[in-house]
Design brief:
heterodimer; A: alpha+beta; Beta-Lactamase; five-stranded antiparallel sheet; two-stranded antiparallel ribbon; 7 strands; globular; B: alpha/beta; D-Maltodextrin-Binding Protein, domain 2; 2 domains; six-stranded mixed sheet; five-stranded mixed sheet; 11 strands; about 20% strand
Chain lengths: ~160, ~250
């Protein structure tokens, strides 16, 4: 189950909104204007089950998200959902991977402290014995040009 | 019946004799004749795999999907504490301090190592560079990649981190690292082919106990690491998925 964000976890001035997550779950989200730059040379890797529940995270995921590994495991991946991300992007993601295909896109992720970080994300279905059993997401450093394009584009997709 | 063992052609030259000693050890331990064939390049090795000539391979992660999915290979072990990492470097006197400062049209010096080049290109992507807007030149060794950076024939070099670290201090002083990858989960793996599949557990057990005696320890040292670690089918599938995710 996903919990509302808590003011005591937030660093800096924040705004508050109620975010509609996938599966008609709502979450109170607190977010700031503070960006954490994506670290050079690192990959953020996670695996979820078919319902989007996190089953594995690497160290870079923990560092960038601001959550502990224990907080992340068994949480929905939408714990990272930022209110600036258009829901259409995630619909496209799920439609694509449910067809057994690879999805790629630029995503603004929400940190536990209310800040954010941009990634270039690739999500692939993990197929074992012909069946999709889980999904792996690999995030890498995005180019600033692509991020700037998304900053202009995403508000038009709501 | 003799089995054929081969090592990914990107092995570090100082470990060449170590692989021959390891092959002799493996023959004695397994009681089977095994011939070690060190191919000079990836295309020649892949042709041998394609023709079903290879029974045992210390494989580059880039080839893992093909070996498992098309040729029925099974993972055995990987080197403990060793992962494949890449470095992006420029000349030390270059004004470039960040990948973002690089421009389309630059010349990138690489070797044939497929996983290292892939990791390097991912790091260049952050500077809006890709295979379509840079000139890639392939060299036989990382020393030649460094040499071509120093003589101005290339603007950027992509190195296997281990190979970069092994360059002479004189060369390294004239170079500057822009990015060093910290991916940790991409690694070479020792794998068995279909003809040895029924002996997988036995060979895996031999390898996992190799560091328990002094002779085995010395051989491992000559390969550049301290022990083997088990790679099970799911570990391998995970790395194959990861490589697929990174391939574009």
């Amino acid at each position: 189950m996903i919990q509302d964000m808590k003011p005591e976890d937030i660093i800096g001035d924040y705004k508050e909104t109620l975010l509609d997550l996938y599966g008609s779950i709502c979450r109170v989200v607190l977010y700031t204007d503070i960006e954490t730059p994506y670290p050079d040379g690192k990959l953020i890797v996670s695996t979820t089950d078919k319902n989007g529940i996190i089953t594995h995270v690497n160290k870079s995921f923990v560092e960038m998200s601001g959550y502990t590994e224990a907080e992340l495991i068994n949480a929905p991946h939408s714990i990272l959902r930022h209110p600036d991300m258009p829901p259409a992007a995630f619909k496209d993601l799920w439609d694509t991977v449910n067809r057994g295909e690879k999805w790629q896109g630029f995503v603004k992720n929400l940190r536990k402290d209310g800040g954010y970080y941009w990634v270039k994300a690739t999500v692939i279905p993990n197929i074992r014995h012909g069946e999709v059993v889980s999904y792996t997401s690999v995030r890498r450093k995005p180019s600033r040009t692509k991020v700037d394009e998304c900053i202009k584009l995403y508000p038009t997709l709501f | 019946m003799s089995y054929l063992f081969t090592v990914s052609p990107d092995f570090t030259p100082v470990h060449l004799s170590g692989w021959y000693i390891f092959n002799t050890w493996l023959q004695r331990q397994s009681g089977s004749p095994i011939h070690l064939e060190m191919y000079n390049d990836f295309p020649t090795q892949r042709l041998a795999i394609h023709n079903d000539q290879v029974d045992l391979i210390f494989a580059n992660p880039f080839d893992a999907a093909m070996l498992v999915r098309e040729k029925g290979f099974l993972p055995l072990v990987k080197a403990a504490g060793v992962s494949d990492e890449a470095i992006i470097a420029v000349r030390a006197d270059s004004a470039v301090e960040d990948v973002a400062h690089l421009s389309p049209g630059i010349t990138v010096a690489v070797t044939e190592d497929p996983d290292v080049t892939m990791m390097g290109m991912i790091m260049l992507e952050a500077g809006d560079l890709n295979a379509g807007n840079v000139e890639t030149t392939i060299f036989d060794t990382y020393v030649l990649v460094a040499k071509n950076l120093l003589n101005d024939s290339a603007d950027v070099g992509i190195f296997l981190a281990e190979a970069y670290d092994d360059l002479s201090s004189i060369v390294k002083k004239q170079l500057k690292i822009l990015v060093r990858s910290q991916i940790s989960v991409i690694h070479h793996s020792l794998m068995v082919g279909p003809k040895l599949a029924d002996r997988r557990d036995e060979i895996q057990a031999l390898l996992l106990s190799m560091a328990e005696d002094d002779k085995g320890k010395d051989i491992l040292k000559s390969l550049g690491f301290d022990n083997w670690v088990k790679v099970d089918d799911e570990d391998m599938e995970f790395m194959i998925d990861l490589m697929e995710a990174l391939a574009t």
